[in-house]
Amino acid sequence: xxxxxxxxxxxxxxxxxxxxxxxxxxxxxxxxxxxxxxxxxxxxxxxxxxxxxxxxxxxxxxxxxxxxxxxxxxxxxxxxxxxxxxxxxxxxxxxxxxxxxxxxxxxxxxxxxxxxxxxxxxxxxxxxxxxxxxxxxxxxxxxxxxxxxxxxxxxxxxxxxxxxxxxxxxxxxxxxxxxxxxxxxxxxxxxxxxxxxxxxxxxxxxxxxxxxxxxxxxxxxxxxxxxxxxxxxxxxxxxxxxxxxxxxxxxxxxxxxxxxxxxxxxxxxxxxxxxxxxxxxxxxxxxxxxxxxxxxxxxxxxxxxxxxxxxxxxxxxxxxxxxxxxxxxxxxxxxxxxxxxxxxxxxxxxxxxxxxxxxxxx
Length: 362
Ligand SMILES: [Zn+2]
Ligand SMILES: [Zn+2]
Prior knowledge:
- By secondary structure, this protein is an alpha/beta fold.
- The protein has eleven helices and 18 strands.
- The strands form three sheets. Strands 3, 5, 6, 9, 10, 17 and 18 form a seven-stranded mixed sheet that branches. It has a six-stranded parallel sheet with strand order 13-12-11-14-15-16, sandwiched between helices. It has a five-stranded mixed sheet with strand order 7-2-1-4-8, with no helix packed on it.
- The longest helix has 13 residues, at about 310-325.
């Protein structure tokens, strides 16, 4: 069958919309008619790192939602017509030490579909980003990656659960769970940072201090649950955060890639606090921390999350229901919608984008 998708053909090439073909879903695989896909920084990261280690040509997109259209042999979890969010994390369940001891949030052995999409021009096998490839009308994913969610949630919002929103909210809910009444700092108020704010609010955090260098983002952070904001351009921003929380915060999240964000997060922590790295760092950078004064004496822990450490089959429906119940403001995360043909431009402009999330409607 033929469809269209955004292909990154070779190092240095500009992503472009192309005709693509695909094989039917195999055993335990699901064919999804993609209806919406968020434009996440990780797709730009794929372009900027010339492939992020994947084989060319690459099919971009990994924050998708849609409707199940066809299923392969052995699929029991979904049927055609189900509304699903496509997860890039899918704990193996029974094939790694973490899953076998009942700790699937630590599984790095994700279940994957085979690669089934091809360039129409020469038949070359495409590598879908994170085995999703959802800047395309169709996606074929492992059944474990097709997560059924309530139909009441608009698909433009639902797709954000696939990556950015779950990463941020999951950091505060599951990776380093914020205790009710605890104080929180969030460094960087883009889509992921704002989702940390939302997750912290849902967890019942007492004080949530948002830090960013852009005034509009700080205003949005307040609307989404931050109790205080600090201008990251201030030289004493770290001291301001510490003072707002009394003597530092219990949890500090760095939702920016720069290592300085994690250093600041550590120094914002109160005694016994936890600094969590959420943003993807550039390669080859080191941390400038005093092990005695910054870590041991104040007993500060550093944690890292990948995608909020979610168990998608459990956590995406939970987040979707929380949004339907009005406990999360997912609608505020959709800044604008574009067509598939506008994706190459949207990637070019992503660094300068002011809003939270641009969503492709297919
Ligand atoms: Zn596993
Ligand atoms: Zn992403």
